[in-house]
Amino acid sequence: MAKDIKRLGKETLVYGTSTVLARLLNFCLVPFYTYYLLPGEYGIIATVFAAIALLNVVFLFGMDQSYLRFASDATDKNKVFRQCFYGVLINGLFLGGLLWLFHALSARIIGIPPHTGHLLKLAAVILFLDVLNMIPFTKLRLERRAWYFAGVRTASIIVNVLCNIFFIAVVHKGIDSILWANIFASLASLVLLSPVVYSELKQNAQFNFDWTLEKQMLSFAWPFVPSGLASLLVSVIDKPILVHLAGTEQVGIYQANFKIGVFMMLIVSMFDQAWRPFFLAHAKDEDARDTFARVLSYFVALASWVLLGLIFLMPNIIQSNLFGNFHLIAPAYWGGLSVIPLVLTGYFFYGLYVNFMVGPVLTKKTRVLLWITLLGAAVSITTNLTLVPRLGILGAGWAVALSYASMAGALFTFTHKVYPIPYEYKKLALMGLFLLLIVGICHALGQGLAIKITLLTLYPVIMAVLLKR
Fold this sequence. Notes:
Layout: H1 2-27, H2 29-36, H3 39-60, H4 63-71, H5 77-101, H6 103-110, H7 119-142, H8 146-170, H9 176-201, H10 211-221, H11 224-236, H12 238-246, H13 248-258, H14 262-281, H15 288-319, H16 340-356, H17 358-362, H18 367-391, H19 393-418, H20 425-445, H21 449-468
């Protein structure tokens, strides 16, 4: 067990290297945007990328998850790759063409001004390129070629950042620049992944489409579409709701602070990239369930420490004068600082949700993901519609936290029923109590930086003691 967990940790670190660098480079664009774009302009871009995130699920149609599941057991992995790749190619061309033709109507639907409708044409190109990249990326994950995966991801983000800086600060192309930068980044990924694609497509020149296999793959994959859409609604539905209820300026302020959640999402993404191939590979081990239980304890210990640190320190860092008159987020956007703790907490619950994914995947009962994520979407929409008119962007923050918490709770209940895992409940309860105690002590003693750092230093020591009990 210890050896397997150690390998998971190593792969998480490798995937995390690229993910951390990529997300941090991408996060560097947040202060850049807040100083070069008005809140209203940033709000338009946030709304467009919310639409891209939702449409990406439809373009991909869950075939990355289907490839992981079927290729892991298949004797002819090349056949599985080809069917997935050609499938998403055809789907991407069809849906991308529709979005290009009906870009004006789509702009009205998502609530952006008519004169910015052309941005959705660029979005169609991004979506098509991204869907072509996904299957080769998934192949690298399945084969545990983590360094190749990490290199391509990092190179793509570097291209994205450099193009953003060039187009916005040098050429002064405005908000169009952000989408053009994403197009060039996606092209860079596709070029770097082309050896993987070519090596698969050049094999078996007489490839025949297997409709029986395709039916099985689609049957496994389709629940990931509505569940993926519902899951994304948790994090993106707040933008169009805010557009209609509060305007694009408030969306821009909210989005700049929402992006701080990237630091919590880093931990979850690093873990997720390695976790799914890991539990698929070790599902048949005699001590598999004990291993999965131990993994959750380690995840909670680390992720809760990161959560606490970000909640304590990010407001101080953002408003500090360490860089003179330059701040991590421009002062015009500081009205949204209150949403940061809620967004971070939401991503922590999403990490728990990822842990509990082992149940439906191993039992092949993925249809339940639809209902669980629809629950999360319903909580998100209801909370946004109820609280945004009263609390503004703070209501949207509460929606993120509550919706992810409801999803994690529902998935835990299902996994416990179909694939019981002996989680270390006593240790997890003690970790939760200690986390609340630290927060209570901080509020009781004041919000001084010295107190926060002292408590954060003490926290991992206590976590280590609890894990050894």
